[in-house]
Amino acid sequence: MSVSRALLSVSDKTGLVELARGLVELGIEILSTGGTARTLTSAGIPVTPVEEVTGFPEMMDGRVKTLHPAIHGGILANRAVPEHMSAIARAGIKPIDLVVVNLYPFEQTVADESVSLETAVENIDIGGPAMTRAAAKNFQSVAVVVDPADYPEVLTALRAPERSVPLEMRRRLATKSFAHTSAYDAAISAWLRGSGDLFPETLTIPLKLVQPMRYGENPHQKGAFYRHAGYQGPTLADATLLSGLEISYNNIQDADAALRVVMSFQDTACAIIKHTNPCGCALGADPVQAFRRAKEGDPVSAFGGIVAFNRPVTDAVASALCEKYQKWDIIVAPSFDEDALERITTRKSWGSTVRLIAVPGMESGESTAYVTGAALDFKRVLGGMLAQEPDRRVLAPEDLKVVSKAQPTPEQMEQMLFAWTIMRHVKSNAIVLCKDFQLLGAGAGQMNRVNSVHLALRQAGDKAEGCVLASDAFFPFPDGPEMAIQGGVKAIIEPGGSTKDAEVIAVCDQYGIPLVFTGVRHFKH
Fold first, then answer.
1. Where is average pLDDT lowest: 79-88, 152-161, 295-304, 457-466?
2. Measuring CA to CA, how many Å separate 232 from each of 128, 205, 373, 505?
3. pLDDT tens profile 221-262
């Protein structure tokens, strides 16, 4: 497939001039439209305007410019079908061998919450997707390029003696083009749908590859990391790996869990994660204090864990992280100052391997900003996907119902809400024990709630005395609360709703312990 004629029409002008110069040097005629043509002309590159080919000027503010047989006939003609070539010859249409298109910046446009309906609609590209799909359909005769990152490879192919784009490359570029237009349409569909219909009959999820992984959860599994195209909040997909080993599939899961925990708090917080569960979490007057208190909660599990801060890591924080008998796999924060980077990365034995990850915007707390419709969480099951709203329910004191005779003090109420916030990030069955805005014990992922209580008490040890307990679901029997109270717990917060609620309340009344019902459950499977 020799290339003699190319059509260039792009919104993203990255690499455009260099590509066009390369094509002209090869003697390839360039057709172009609107802003693309003006950019090329300004750079001194000869261009044939599309209106000279179609015989019609752009119409309706550019809504119609390439939707014409002189363009689509040139793109869609199959060079291997004589009837196709005869048909365009009779119509005076010349073949178009290379189509370089990227689309109006729809997602960037609607990311601005103040954008008007009219502006958003005008950024729905019609001609671009039509040309892209036409060229991709006819990949056996035409090369289509939608990503500036592919320009150098295409030019290299055209500079070879064959002066053509190989069939296998054309097929790969066509595959990429269909994925590109599919994601574009998904973004438009989600925006038009808005938040009114969370679960439409057909749901397309636009995902863009961030990076392939060395492997998945285990070395025998392949893995990759994709970004949800519509998400606009803090995310590891936008993070910068400042130092350390390449990040892995499991690293991303653990770092994301840590990120979610610290972003749940507006106050200065530190969380330490092991296998996606918080083994330490605390608030502090500053990040150093928050870190020290988080580590105190379970110093054994903390070793080799993932640490996250919702404040920048300074040299003082780095100094605390680098103290003896400590080792960290990942440290996540909004930013790291130069002194902190140097101190951590030059730490003997593990400094060169620890992954330092900067996530912009995470100081602002949890984000609900999705431009392509409502945010959904997904879980894969055999043959399908489960979809749900993210669990972002936040409780205030007025949402709580005291069901015991004993009334919680204001301090206990604050501690219960702190424990409740951490607990929703712990795998079910989840029990957490907290005191003085510090996680001291956690029971996660157990098959019954009593075992979770036992594990939380064992981890807290003597520190359980005076703790508050949060449970992600109701206690089905009074044995769990009784074990907790006998272990030193002084207040309990749970959803309520069990057929045995009266017995649970009676046990708390027997010991004079405040019991608060939330009416909200936080299962995390």
1. 79-88
2. 25, 15, 11, 44
3. 999 999 887 777 889 999 999 999 899 999 999 999 999 999
Q: Which CATH class is domain 397-517?
A: alpha beta
> Which tokens belong to 278?
């918080």
pLDDT of res. 372: 42
For 424-455, how does the pLDDT look when each residue is reduced to its tens digit (9 = 90+)?
Answer: 999 999 999 999 999 999 999 999 999 999 99
Question: Does residue 219 sit in helix, strand or coil?
Answer: coil
Mean pLDDT of 45-58: 78
Which two tokens mark 40? 């090329």
User: Is 144 exposed, middle or buried (CB count within 10 Å of its CB: 0-12, 13-18, 19+)?
Assistant: buried
Where does residue 275 fall: left (phi above 0), alpha (psi -120 to 50 degrees), or beta otherwise?
left
Output the CATH code of domain 5-193. 3.40.50.1380
Q: What is the rounded CA–CA span in Å between residue 285 and residue 267?
A: 9
Fold of 223-364: Cytidine Deaminase; domain 2 (3.40.140)
Separation of CA 278 from chain center: 20
Q: Which residues are part of the catalytic machinery?
A: 137, 275
Q: Where are the domains of the chain?
A: 5-193, 223-364, 397-517
118 beta partners: none
| String of DSSP letters for 1-48 | -B--EEEEEES--TTHHHHHHHHHHTT-EEEE-HHHHHHHHHTT---E
Q: Do domains 223-364 and 397-517 have the same CATH topology?
A: yes
Specify whether the CB–CB gap between 253 and 276 falls below 8 A: yes
Dmax (CA) of the chain: 96
In what helix (H) or strand (E) does residue 182 lie, and over which residues does it extend?
Answer: helix 167-193
